[in-house]
Structures are given as C-alpha cells and as structure tokens.
C-alpha cells in the first residue's frame, strides 16, 4: 500500500530532513514534550553535498545527543546549563547536545531572571557623557582614545561579554520551536566544530559600549563588538532558516556623535579567524547594516586556504553592506534574493584581498536609485566569477544583467572574470534566477520549518 504523507512531513522532506523513527519523547517534562516532527527536525543533519559544510566529515551537530543532553530551554540560565553549565567553559564541552529554544531568551537576563540594562554592565568609572567630552576630536585630536576613560570602557565591554556572549561547544544543535527568539545576545562558535543553528529569530545584539575609532575612514567611525552569530576557528557549521534583525533598535535610529552614527551593532553572521566549511542556507536578513564578514583582516597568513563558505537561498531584505564581504575564502553564492535600496545602501558583494567569489543565478530587486554597477565593491580583490544574475530595478521588468561588466564599465581597475575555481558541493541543481524570488520569499527565515 502506498503511504500518504501529511503536508508538514512533505515540507520537511523537501527541506532535506533525513528519515527518523522517533516518537514524541517521553524523557522530557510533559509541558516540554516534543512532537515527532520537532524531534525529527532537531536531529536532522546537513544533507550530503549541501555546500562547504558538507565537506570532510560533514555536519551532524547534536543529532547523537543522549536524552540527558536533549533539552528544551526557556531562558538564558537554562540555555547556558544545556550548553554545559558554565558559560566561560562551555566552548570546551564536546558532548553531543540537542537544544530546543522555546519562547524568547534575552541575553540581558540577570540572576533570577531580573533584566539588566547597559548601566548595570558599565564599569563604575565609565560614563558616555564623560567619554564623549574627553575624546571629542576637537579636543583629543584624531588619535585612538587612551587613558582611564578608555580603560573603563574596555572593562565595561568585558562585563558585557561575560553576560551577553553565549559560548557554544562542538557537536551542538540549537533549534528554535515556533516563535523562538534570541534577543541581545551573541552565539559564539569558537574552536567548536560541528554545530547546527536553525529556526531562530536573532534580534538586536547591541553593544552598550561602542569604541570610537578616529582613524577608521576619513572621518572616523564608531565600531561595535558583537555579532549575532560569530564563527571563529571552527569547521562544519550549518546556519539554516534563521531570521536576523535589529528589531525596533536599528542603527538608523541611533544618535550622531563626533559627526558619525553611533553604531551599536556589528555583523549578523561573521566567519573569521581561520574558520571554514560553513553553509548558510534559507536565512532572512532584514533591515540591518553589516551582515556577513568572511575573513578577519587583509593580512596574508593563516586565513589563506580557509574561509570556505556557501550561501544559498537566503533573502537579503533592506540591508546595506557585506552581503557578503570576503577575504581569501572560496565563497559560493547562488540562488539568493537581494531586495536592496535606500539612501544608505552601499554594496552587495565585497571583493576583498585574495577572495574567490563564485556568484551564480542570484536575483536582485533594486530601487531605481541603485545602479547595478554598484552591486560589486573592490576591497582589494582582483577577480570574481559572476554569472546568471537577473535584476528588476525600480519596478521595471526583470532582465539578465552582467554585473561584472557593468562594474568594470564604470570602475577602475577592472576585476577579472575568473575567480579560479568551480563549486562542486551543491545538493540540488541551481535554479534559473527568475525562479529564485518565488521560492526564497516564502521559505527563507525562521518559522518556515514545520516545527
């Protein structure tokens, strides 16, 4: 007899869920009893050939977690406990862990659940008004801050890092149940290979104590420390079906100090410090400034031969730059949808030092003010493979556009057309670009999985 599958199961299988025989788990409290489908998706591993994270041993996360290491968490304290119990040492806990997030978890949740403010985390010697008065370029000059107030700011950053940076160990899966949110925190994946993060909405990983960098650019800049997810010195990481947003605290709403925006957010998903073998798929990035930085610096060294990342079927919606910005790595970017515009938009693909971007069959929906020639930006790179791009601009008809040719026609020096490699780790055939918005819009982001 032919078995008829339910709609949710069909969707799960279409999204790559491997077979599972688990029933609703009896080993968790009844209030947190997991459905068959939640257990099924929580134990899903990255499918074979699904981007760079499928290379080597592949990415299985916490699929082998025992009942004792399978937890449903509802607050910061429970999340830290599920990751090993000691936030400072959790990065070294290599036991398989499967963690379901239920509801909203706030990184600014203090002992006993009391909410903390930036003032609670500030060193007693730090005050923003005093900092602004001391390091105003008109008074201090254009040299980096130093002295007691800067030292107090650094101590304040240490306090915040201890509170809002959640350290994730190897062999871990963190998956959100419907409506799960992580607010005001960073998931730090550092020296922690084989990690899966899925179906979470990550909101407002704000920095209470941005640093003033007077030599960053012509006019200086405020720089923040905290990403929403940071991958460092790790391999085989799969980030899938998440939503990244600043919520009701966008950088555009921040004040201006020293003539520059007081930027309190850093990246959405940064892959740096020799990390490699990362697949980011079916994510939604909305209303943010800096998104994806791949590569820590322009210094030729240990990053060479690393930073291999795949980005596919992601939605970049109303975002401004680093979509991604790449140094050194072989980065495969295909079947993504970019909805871009606004006065503050800067660029999409940043071609950095020794980068090897292979961009294929991506779709760009642009405001009339955005010139397709400005979708690429030269950060010291020399070549990019770009093919099959389609553009719909200002409500007009969609059409194929050679983005590299458009860039080279209006910028010097030219970028060469061959990044020197061809991706082989792709699970499914690459879609024609005109089909990408039809699929990515409904399916990318958190709460699209049937969980």
Question: Keywords for this structure?
Answer:
451 residues; alpha/beta; 9 helices; 32 strands; signal; lyase activity; carbohydrate metabolism
Descriptive notes:
The chain starts with 6 loop residues before the first helix and ends in an 8-residue tail after the last helix. The relative contact order is 0.11. Helix 3 links the parallel strand 1 and strand 2. It has nine helices and 32 strands. The radius of gyration is 22 Å and the shape is globular. Helix content is 16%, strand content 26%. It is α/β, with parallel strands linked by helices. The strands form six sheets. It has a ten-stranded parallel beta sheet, covered by helices on one side. Strands 3-6-9-14-19-22-25-28-31-32 form a ten-stranded mixed beta sheet. The N terminus is likely disordered. Keywords: Carbohydrate metabolism, Lyase, Polysaccharide degradation, Secreted, Signal. This is Pectate lyase. Belongs to the polysaccharide lyase 1 family.
Ordered list of secondary-structure elements with their pairings:
Layout: H1 7-14, H2 36-42, E1 70-73, H3 76-82, E2 97-101, E3 104-106, H4 118-121, H5 128-135, H6 137-140, H7 148-164, E4 165-167, E5 172-176, E6 181-183, E7 186-190, E8 195-198, E9 201-203, E10 211-213, E11 221-223, E12 229-232, E13 235-240, E14 243-245, E15 256-257, E16 260-261, E17 269-272, E18 276-281, E19 284-286, E20 293-294, E21 309-312, E22 315-317, E23 325-326, E24 330-334, E25 337-340, E26 349-352, E27 356-360, E28 363-366, E29 376-379, E30 385-387, E31 390-393, E32 399-400, H8 403-410, H9 436-443
């Amino acid at each position: 007899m032919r078995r008829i599958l339910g709609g949710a199961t069909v969707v799960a299988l279409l999204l790559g869920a491997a077979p599972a025989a688990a029933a609703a788990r009896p080993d968790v409290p009844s209030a947190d009893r997991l459905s068959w489908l939640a257990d099924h998706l929580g134990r899903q591993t990255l499918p074979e050939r699904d981007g760079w994270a499928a290379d080597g041993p592949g990415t299985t996360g916490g699929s082998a977690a025992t009942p004792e290491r399978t937890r449903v968490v509802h607050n910061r304290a429970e999340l830290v406990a599920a990751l090993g119990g000691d936030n400072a040492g959790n990065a070294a806990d290599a036991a398989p862990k499967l963690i379901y997030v239920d509801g909203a978890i706030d990184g600014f949740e203090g002992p006993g659940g009391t909410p903390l403010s930036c003032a609670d985390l500030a060193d007693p010697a730090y005050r923003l008004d005093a900092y602004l008065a001391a390091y105003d370029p008109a008074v201090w000059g254009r040299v980096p801050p130093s002295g007691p107030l800067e030292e107090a700011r650094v101590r304040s950053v240490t306090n915040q890092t201890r509170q809002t940076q959640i350290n994730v160990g190897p062999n871990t899966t963190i998956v959100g149940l419907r409506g799960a949110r992580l607010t005001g925190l960073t998931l730090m994946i550092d020296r922690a290979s084989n990690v899966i993060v899925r179906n979470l909405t990550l909101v407002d990983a704000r920095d209470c104590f941005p640093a003033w960098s007077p030599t960053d650019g012509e006019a200086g800049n405020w720089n923040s420390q905290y990403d929403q997810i940071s991958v460092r010195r790790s391999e085989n990481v799969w980030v899938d079906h998440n939503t990244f947003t600043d919520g009701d605290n966008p950088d555009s709403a921040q004040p201006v100090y020293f003539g520059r925006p007081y930027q309190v957010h850093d990246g959405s998903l940064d892959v740096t410090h020799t990390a490699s073998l990362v697949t980011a798929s079916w994510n939604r990035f909305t209303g943010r400034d800096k998104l994806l930085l791949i590569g820590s610096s322009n210094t030729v060294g240990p990053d060479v031969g690393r930073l291999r990342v795949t980005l596919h079927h992601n939605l970049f919606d109303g975002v401004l730059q680093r979509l991604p910005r790449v140094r050194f790595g072989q980065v495969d970017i295909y079947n993504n949808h970019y909805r871009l515009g606004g006065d503050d938009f800067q660029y999409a693909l940043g071609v950095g030092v020794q980068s090897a971007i292979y961009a294929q069959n991506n779709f760009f929906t642009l405001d009339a003010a955005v010139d397709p020639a400005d979708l690429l930006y030269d950060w010291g790179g020399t070549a990019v493979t770009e093919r099959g791009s389609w553009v719909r601009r200002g409500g007009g008809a969609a059409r194929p556009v050679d983005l590299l040719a458009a860039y080279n026609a209006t910028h010097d020096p030219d970028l060469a057309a061959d990044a020197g490699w061809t991706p082989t780790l792709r699970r499914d055939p690459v879609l024609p670009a005109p089909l990408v918005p039809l699929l990515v819009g409904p399916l990318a982001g958190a709460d699209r999985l049937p969980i």
